[in-house]
Structure formats: structure tokens, C-alpha cells
Amino acid sequence: MRYPADQKAKAREGILQAAAKVLRTKGFNGIGVDGLAASARVTSGAFYSNFSNKEALLDDVIAACVGEPFIDTESGSLAERQDRLREWLAMYISAAHRADPATGCVMPTLSADVARASPQIRLTYQRKMLDLVHKMSSVLGGSEPEREKRAWNIVAIMVGAIAIARAMPDGEAAERALDAALQTAIALIDPK
């Protein structure tokens, strides 16, 4: 029986997406290849036919997920793009994102794992972070060096706020941490 030409690519993408979801909740060292394969409903053999090892998968997860999705940074006026960034930040720095790491951003959940990973994975992470900061800075007003500095601050606030709020028990303190972080990040978009 012949498979469609794109079957292998679809299988790889399915494994990648399922693994990204489970890695967000369990971390890189919290699950093995068998568990990653099971999360994608494939065999370990199918996993290895798509990824040489678990680190290769992590590299692809980072390449596919860091800074994605992000807002359209090219269309509309600067004010319209800044409004989109405010809306996106409100979605990112939120109780809903805090409560659902499996479908949230990989940065708060996998950054510590990446810091302990191979140089190749760290380079992939750096490339994706620089791309995110570049896109974000293009939405901010001011000189280029100042925009980049504020973009780095916003990214650090976003990731840190979610990581800290997830580490806290549910309740008012976690909510206050998220609210304070969101207000600060939004203030950095167009400081007057």
C-alpha cells in the first residue's frame, strides 16, 4: 500500500505537536522517548524514524514554538500594531495562560531545560528569541536601541510572570503578580 507523498511530513508534525504539548507540562527530563511517542499515539520506532533522539525533537520544538504565534507586525499604523501587541500581552500574561501550560508558550516551561541542553539547541533558542525581540521592537516607538531594550524587558516580564505565577498556589497573590506584570509590560510599549 502506498502512502501519500506528504504522509511522513504529517506524521513528523503530529509527533512534534504532541511532544511539544507534553514537554510543556512534564519538561524535557520528565518524560522519555516512549512517553513522547505514546503522547503522539505512535511507536518508539516511529519516533526514531522522524527524530534521531530526544534532543533533536527538543531542537525542533524550540524552532517551531518559541515566539509563535505572534502578532502581525507589518500591517496597519504603528498605533494599530501597538494595540494588537497590548491585546496579545493581555492574552499572554493571563490567568488562562498560567492555568494551561500544555497549550501555552514554551518559553516559561522549557527555558530552564534549554539552558542545560546542547549548544545547538541553545543556538536555536537564541535565534528564535532574537527574532521575537526584533519583531516586538518593530512595534514599539522610539530609537532602535531603545526599542530593542524595551522589547527585551517585555519578553523577560512575560516569561517571568507566567513562570512565577505558575509556581505559586492559585489565588490572589498569583493574580496580583500577573496584573502587575501586564501593567508594566503594556507601559513599556509606548512610554511617554
Estimated structural class: mainly alpha
Residue share in helix = over 70%
Order of helices and strands: HHHHHHHHHH
Total number of helices: 10
If you average the pLDDT, what whole number results? 94
N-end to C-end Cα span: 65 Å
Principal-axes geometry comes out as globular
Strand tally is 0
Describe this structure in words.
- The protein is globular.
- The relative contact order is 0.12.
- The mean pLDDT is 94.
- The N and C termini lie far apart (65 Å).
- It has 192 residues and is mainly alpha-helical.
- The protein contains ten helices and no strands.
Summarize the structure.
The protein is built from 10 helices and no strands.
Key features of this structure:
mainly alpha; 70% helix
Helices, strands, pairings?
Elements: H1 7-26, H2 33-39, H3 44-50, H4 54-65, H5 78-92, H6 95-99, H7 106-115, H8 119-137, H9 144-167, H10 172-187
Helix pairs in contact: 1-4, 4-8, 8-9, 9-10
